[in-house]
Amino acid sequence: MRNTIISMYQPSHLSSLIRKMQCVVESAAQNLPTSELEDITFSDLSLKLATDVIGQAAFGFDFGLTKEPSLNGSNNVQNDVEVEDFIKQHMYSTTTLKMDLSGSFSIILGLICPILRHPFQQILKRVPGTTDWKVDQTNRKLMKRLDQIVEKRAKDKDRGSKDFLSLILNAREAEKGLKNVFTSDYISALSYEHLLAGSATTSFTLSSILYLVAAHPEVETNLTREIDSFGGHDLMPTTHDLQHKFPYLDQVVKEAMRFYTVSPLVAREASKQVEIGGYVLPKGTWIWLAIGVLAKHPKYFAEPNKFQPERFNPTCEEEIQRHPYAHIPFGIGPRQCIGIKFSIQEIKLALIHLYRRYSFQHSPNMEKPLEFEYGIVLNFKYGVKLRVIRRST
Ligand code: HEM
């Protein structure tokens, strides 16, 4: 399975995605309000941006979330009712519907008495108005929409092989044995997992970078200097340029991912009995890797609560001495994130585009300190609110 889709994330395919990514980034950033009194909730914008990008890569579909609606209300994207409905449900479940302690009684009860959580959840799912009911309804609608999308694409014989969904469907048709494994339900679930894995993480990372850089003007100065020296606004960096010609940008991204680790826990299950640090863990034990804790360990990161991109400079002693597995925001080993290069390319392109045109400040309406929601991935409790200043260059 992993091998089937990994080709999508190889350098050759990534370079062909640059133009698509660039179009989404441009349309997301073209009309940011630059009034001194107006806020933008950048985290909402970055979620739209990341969802549009993954929509093109995973589904071969333009969701059009970052496009400005025209006067007649349409945003000139492909007219597909199922996809439109699906994506509305997805945005609703990601931004509005929150399965947190304040919302769900079954979660609170589960903390007090874990054994009661599941039966209670089953009951509350049937009680209209409760969070459990809303989550269940939204999940059902989402999966129904996704099933329709998968079904439609499965019938399309000219689907090509440029996106995740088409690649899996092609693989299913090419190998008879896979038909029973890659059922439509399974493919729908995988596609949704992909959409979630690729949008919430990238969006959070992009927003946290803008938030952190806005609080560190010296970092912004260095960053814009590097970006400006690359060339004029029309010069679009290639995949190779992004990897090699923006060393400071690279350090800023790494440091922001260390500072706010979006996926702070990674799970593994012991496939056989193993001894770790003197503890014998029987087969089947769940092991949680606290990569967010590791990212703040003073043994590997001096003054870990300071935002210092230079600590990732290849000539910095801290970087030279650091254990290679101390900074692993994408996990590690055979189950490491498959979207590393994809998301880094997207994040760097977005940052270059944004800082070429704008500078950012925290809105006075932003809470201090920043508050988070702790789910499968980290999220901002009230969003990242910024003021945008157009640069004069
Ligand atoms: C800043 C962005 C991202 C971060 C921080 C991130 C982080 C992670 C982490 C920590 C894991 C678990 C790895 C492990 O268990 O060792 C993971 C898995 C995964 N990620 Fe990402 N991710 C990001 C973007 C993406 C994107 C853009 C995609 C898709 C295009 C993606 C697809 C996946 C998939 C499919 C898995 C499961 C891999 C497997 O189990 O074999 N991720 N990611």
Automatic annotation (TrEMBL):
GO BP, one annotated term: isoquinoline alkaloid biosynthetic process
Binding positions for heme per the UniProt entry: 337
GO MF annotation: an example: heme binding
Cofactor(s) it depends on: heme
InterPro entries associated with the record: Cyt_P450, Cyt_P450_CS, Cyt_P450_E_grp-I, Cyt_P450_sf
Record keywords: Heme, Iron, Metal-binding, Monooxygenase, Oxidoreductase
Pfam families to which the protein is assigned, alphabetical: p450 (PF00067)
UniProt record similarity statement: Belongs to the cytochrome P450 family.
Protein name: Cytochrome P450
